[in-house]
Structures are given as C-alpha cells and as structure tokens.
Specification:
alpha/beta; Rossmann fold; 2 domains; 9 helices; 46% helix
C-alpha cells in the first residue's frame, strides 16, 4: 500500500522534473528522448491503481492544500505534452516514427471516443487543440473517411502539424487552422467536436460555441478527475439550458475520460 506521504513526494518529483524539462525546448530533438521517458512514466503513474487508491485516501484538507500544486503540475505537464508532440514531429522529418507509450495510450482512447454517437463518412469533425502531431485527425480520417478540421492557438504547432499530415495523411480530408473556434465557419457545420484534455478554458469555449453550432452537434470533452487531473483539466458543471451531459465514458487504464454533451 502506498502511503499518503509517498504520493506527495512523487508529486513533488514530477513537478520539479516537468518544470526543468519545460525550459529545454529549442526546436530541435535534443531532449526528446528524456521528455518522452518522463511522460511515459507519468502516464503510468496517473493510471496506476495503487496510486489512485493512495490519492483517494487523501482527506479534503490535504486535497485543498494540494490544489494549487496540482494546478502547477497540470500546467507544466500540458506544456511538456505540447513539447513532446513537437519533438515527435521533428523526428518524423528524419524518418523516425517510433511511438511512445504516451501516444499509444492516446490512440487507444480515440477508438470509442463518441460512444453511441458514431462518426460516419459524411460526418464533419472539429478538433480543438490539435497540437503538433495531430493523431486524432489522422486516425478519424483514415478509419472513417470523415472530414476533420483541427485548430490550435500555437502557430508553430499548426506548421508542424501540417508537415505531419503531408507525410502521414496525404490525400486525407484533414485541414489545420490557426484560428479561434468562434472565427471558424466550419464550426457551424461540425457534427462532432472534440476538446483536447489539455485545453485549459474548454468549458468557457463550450459555452460560447452554443450559439454558433448546429442543433445536432455532439461534443466529446476529454477530461480527468481525481489523480487524472494531474494530467488533464477536470470536468466542470455546465450552465443549465444550453448543454446536457449525455454520457460519460470512463476508462481506468487510459489517461483521460470523456464527457459527451448534446444541445438541450
């Protein structure tokens, strides 16, 4: 059994490692292997049952004291995920396409993302937070034939992401844009919208998207509660009258869960 103090010490160690690694990105792959190993360890840490049990034994006072620290770890790990995607994209230029455990976990999560709201060839999918290595658009377009548009606020991520699409998905119906969702006409056409788990203000954006999306749109909100909140932004309450929580897809062995929303 892992003691409460042990899990706190592990959190401090991961916090310090992420902070250190977040200062190393230099647009090369110099620190890629080191960061990949760190993210793989962290992926296993947040999905480990013993660690979850230790986290759940923390009382409300302990969790309250950790709240700001958890937010710092989440911000630092999200930055390192963005860096890792850039490293992977840079590696792909050189013909190196090996996949880390972190990416394998993400790809496994994509399989049943929408539950009963299946993506069909005629669907139109919008991904918010596509990153530098857009696995989700590639997998969806390859497996369903659906059109996918990914957006990201990081201009470098869009540039690298387009290179990845050209190398791995040439001819697929995928487009990447460096635009806010509200300024994207495609948002009105989208039948399915996916929010990446590392998008910080996703619930604020969900609220704003209500007025510009069609009435049949289905939203997959990737999130993580409990120990998974170290690696993902957690689920939030939504304003009544706009969206309803239609389903929750809980996957203990994977790094994020999914909340599905439809319009009221």
């Amino acid at each position: 059994m892992i003691a409460n103090e042990d899990i706190k010490l592990k959190l401090v160690d991961y916090h310090d490692n992420f902070k250190e690694m977040s200062r190393t990105y230099d647009k090369s792959d110099q620190h890629g292997s080191e960061l990949e190993a760190l993210l793989d360890r962290f992926s296993h840490f947040v999905t480990n049952e013993s660690n979850k049990e230790a986290w759940n034994r923390l009382d409300q006072q302990e969790l309250g004291l950790l709240d700001g620290f958890v937010s710092e770890i989440r911000e630092a790990s999200a930055l390192c995920v963005a860096m890792m995607e850039k490293y992977r994209a840079v590696r792909l230029r050189s013909g190196y396409a090996a996949i880390a455990d972190y990416f394998k976990n993400i790809e496994a999560c994509i399989e049943k993302e929408f539950g009963g709201f299946s993506i069909l060839p005629e669907s139109k999918v919008l991904l918010i937070g596509s990153g530098s290595f857009p696995m989700t658009p590639l997998l969806i377009a390859k497996r369903t034939g659906a059109e996918v548009v990914g957006i990201d606020i990081d201009e470098e991520a869009i540039t690298l992401g387009r290179e990845v699409i050209a190398l791995l998905g040439s001819g697929l119906p995928i487009r990447l844009e460096n635009l806010p969702a509200e300024q994207l006409p495609y948002a009105r056409e989208a039948t399915h919208i996916i929010f990446s788990s590392t998008v910080g203000k996703k619930y604020e954006l969900l609220d704003r998207l209500h007025s510009i999306t069609n009435e049949h749109v289905v939203v997959a909100m990737r999130y993580g509660d409990g120990l998974k909140s170290l690696f993902n932004y957690p689920m939030q309450e939504i304003e009544w009258g706009k969206w309803r929580l239609s389903d929750r897809i809980l996957r203990p062995d994977q790094i994020f869960d999914v909340a599905l929303y439809t319009k009221i």
